[in-house]
Amino acid sequence: MEKRKLSFWQIWNMSFGFLGIQMGFALQNANASRILQIFGADVHELSWFWIIAPLMGLIVQPIIGHYSDKTWSRFGRRKPYFLVGAILASIGLVLMPQADMFIAFLPALWVGAGMLMIMDASFNIAMEPFRALVGDNLRTDQRTLGFSVQTALIGFGAVVGSWLPYALHHWFGVSNRTSLGVVPDNLIWSFVIGAAILIISILVTITTTKEYSPEELASFDADSKESTEEESSSLMDIFEDFKKMPTTMRQLSWVQFFSWFGLFGMWVFATPAIAQHIYGLPYTDSSSSSYQDAGDWVGILFGIYNLVSAFYAFALPYIAKKIGRKRTHSISLIIGGLGLLSIYIMPNENWLIISMIGIGIAWASILAMPYAILAGSISPKKMGVYMGIFNFFIVIPQIINALIGGPLVKYAYNNEAIFALMISGLSFLIAAVLVYKVKDVDDVVQTN
What we know:
Layout: H1 8-14, H2 17-38, H3 46-50, H4 52-70, H5 79-95, H6 108-137, H7 140-170, H8 185-208, H9 214-220, H10 228-231, H11 237-243, H12 247-277, H13 289-323, H14 325-342, H15 352-375, H16 383-390, H17 392-412, H18 418-434
């Protein structure tokens, strides 16, 4: 038996929930450091608070991957996880910028960090099964398109999330000014709107997408049938699966390590780096009107790189057919690395748009190419758990960066956060070189 060929719009609806997930992620990535600084965090402490994000991914994604592989109910295989994750993430989005409401019980900074933890755990609950769903539902010749559409929706969602605070302030007159320890109104409303769109987009996927049953998936895997023993396997089998991971996955792990080490540094330190290096503010400033303007502009810049990634994602399948997935990914990472490094020499905030174009090209490829390469090397019956295990190589570099990034900024870079972005650029370039060591087992390159 062979999986049915899906239309473009069926693939689009299947991944539409990623629009809301990434809108929430974008709001978090562009504004969490700013919110935590408003609540009292120092620049060098930011990476320690951000360690929550990769820790949640490390714990949650393999577990959700394992159980979503074993789940089948009248609601589906992956769908229940989408919905539960979306509801919990929405709660975190609404409460994080309003953590000062709980100041009678705990310091706002700690409540804000707790909401960040809830958001990240919930995003991971919803996101991991989406990756596996593409592997479940699409034939080999449609997987690159599937992950590219997913990347495009991630990009569009991130653009809306990144630009929303700026738009609410400049287009709708919602204040972006703050008093000591209070998050501006434009941020609060942005997070509330993001929570609503997250729920709606997940419901679109749930109501329009059909999943294959476990029996159907087993029939597509000609080389292996699921046995009763496997069906009753325990969560501890994740460690055995980790030891038996395919060679391609091991090789991709190093590419992922340096890619995500670089991304994490950019997300954590972009706001203070640009506020200091481009706007000329002292590292101790987190409440002036200039700092809020810098924070809003970082949101615009993040939106630009996500917008670029959304459109570049549509080109990825065609580029990969011509030059191969490995070369496509390597070139994209080089362009992104140069984009990050160029931030240092830009004369003002408007020139940073050029840097973001390069970063957007790399971001699109990071979200699509490794998964397209990986999906061809693993069995359908292990798709969920291996997509979850693959997340180890996304979260471990982020945890390492979280532990060392803050001390490096404080002691090695003399509180100049711009150098954290330079290290991120170098990390992208290293990842680009390591791509060539990966064996892509089912890549198809057109020679005519």
